[in-house]
Structure formats: structure tokens, C-alpha cells
Amino acid sequence: MISCTEFIPAYSEGFKYLEKKGGRKKVDEFWAYLSDLYLSDTLKKLVEENGIKGCFIYWEKALNEEAADFKMTLDEEKEEFRIDMFKCPSKGMLLEMKHMKPYKDYCEHCPALYSRVLEPMGYEFNMDLSQTDKAKCNLTVRKIREDESNG
Amino acid sequence: MKVIERKASDNKYLHRDFHISMNMLMEYICKEYGSSALTDYLVQFAQEFHSIRKECLQKGDLGCLEKYFKEIYEKEEWPVQIEFKNDELVISQEACPGISHLRKSGQKPVEQYIETYSTVYKTLCQDTPYEYVMESFNSDTGKCRQRFQRRSV
Description:
The complex is a heterodimer of chains A (about 150) and B (about 150).
Chain A: H1 7-39, H2 43-50, H3 53-65, E1 69-75, E2 80-87, H4 89-96, H5 109-118, E3 123-128, E4 137-143, H6 146-149
Antiparallel strand pairs in A: 1-2, 2-4, 3-4
Helix pairs in contact in A: 1-5, 2-3
Chain B: E1 2-6, H1 18-33, H2 35-49, H3 51-58, H4 63-76, E2 81-85, E3 88-93, H5 97-104, H6 118-125, E4 130-137, E5 144-150
Antiparallel strand pairs in B: 2-3, 3-5, 4-5
Helix pairs in contact in B: 1-2, 2-6
């Protein structure tokens, strides 16, 4: 059995395995596959139905279930959403497991999965991954206004 | 403006949807490289993840596995029967938490789902005095009975 509480190390090893088989390209392809398959029924649907608030609904459930240490801010007027992750439970777990080495670009799966869903829906997606060695990061999603998108 | 702030200690770590992502990872490996690649991947995972438990088994300490299984089923909030006596560990469950969550979520478990048990625990027992036996497994529910026992000389 691979318990859902053991998924993160299994996920990290999965990335290593795919890279060994087909290089980084294969890892990126898997992230695209997972994004299309998993997030289309969850995050994508919520944002289609609720606008930027859909991000809040999606991550509120996920981050609470993952027991993350975070602050989440939603500004519906400005159509902006932000997560300040003070301790990512996934990266935190990988850093604490001294007998295993995490996949070198583990945290890159987040922008790969989420930008693929949000950007085609007219949102700007940014992540700061500069402090992932401390299991910290932040993420912002912002609706691109029509006057911006028209150049 | 809506703001929420949480500490890790505010919640229990139990995100069952990870079973869905795990199944998708296995499905992808099978689709791209075939079912033998899935076995290779699970061997790699078990070698890395269970290396500390393998060391215990190599020292003849099967009790560490009993402790591990008790903890993992407790974290998963899943009913299980664990019997440990005479250097033998028997684990019986009425359903698999992963398969149950997948079915509840309308997902189809990969055909080789059993390998998340068999391959993982056979790899764990490799080069130790113990062997792993899957006595029964129902692929629809994941109901199963597993045994860790001393290898016969």
C-alpha cells in the first residue's frame, strides 16, 4: 500500500524515474498530463464557475487537508489571489526525510500544473520559488484586464 | 478582501485526493513504458522509501514493521487488523484506502494496483531474513491478507 500520507516521496521518486527514462522533457510531459487530467475537474471547473474565488475554494480545501502553514488572500474586487506558503507540507516532508533525496526540481511541478490551467482562462500566474530550500514559496494569480490583454 | 491563515498544527495531514494523483502517475508510467516499467518504478520507490525499515528487518526486528503499519493505518484513518506473534506479521483489511477513494471519486484503479503492495513489500524484504506473502487480494475492493514471515532455510 502507498498511503496518501506517503504520496509525496512516491511522487518525487516518480519524477526521478521519468527523468531517468526520458529526460526532463518526460517530466514536463507528465506534469502537463496530470494538469489536464486532474485539474480540469477541480481547479478549472471552480474558476469557470466562481472566477478568481475558485482559486480560494480550491486551495482552501487542499491546503487545509495537507496541513500547510500558510496565509491565503483573496481580493475579489481586484481579482487577485495570493498564497504565502510559510511551510509547504510536501517540500517540508521531503527535506525532513534524511534517508531520501528529493527530485532536484520538485517544486517546479506547481507552476507547471497550475499555470497550464489558469493562463488560458485569462489569468496571470506567478510563483516565487527562491526559498524552496526552506519549504517557503508564494503564488499569485491575477485576472488580466481586457485593456491589458489588448496591449 | 478575504484572508485566512493556518498553522500546520491546525489541521490533520490527510489529503485523500493524493490517491488519485498516485493512480495517475502509475497510469502514465504504464501508458508510456508498459507495466514492467511500473514495477521498476515501484522497486525504486521501495528501495529509497523503505530503506530504514529494511535495515530493521536485516537486524531481525520485525516489530518495527508492526509499528510502521499501525502508524500508517492510523494516519490514514483506515480499519485494519494487525497480528504480530511468533516472528510473523499478518495484516488483514476489508478494503484498500486507495482503491476505495478512487472508486468513490469515479476513478478506475490501474490494473496493476496490487503491485503497490506486492512489489513494494517484496522489495522491502529483499536481502533480509523475512519474506512477504500476499495471501489474497480482491482487485475490486483491495480487501486482502498479507503476511511477513521468516524465510524457510
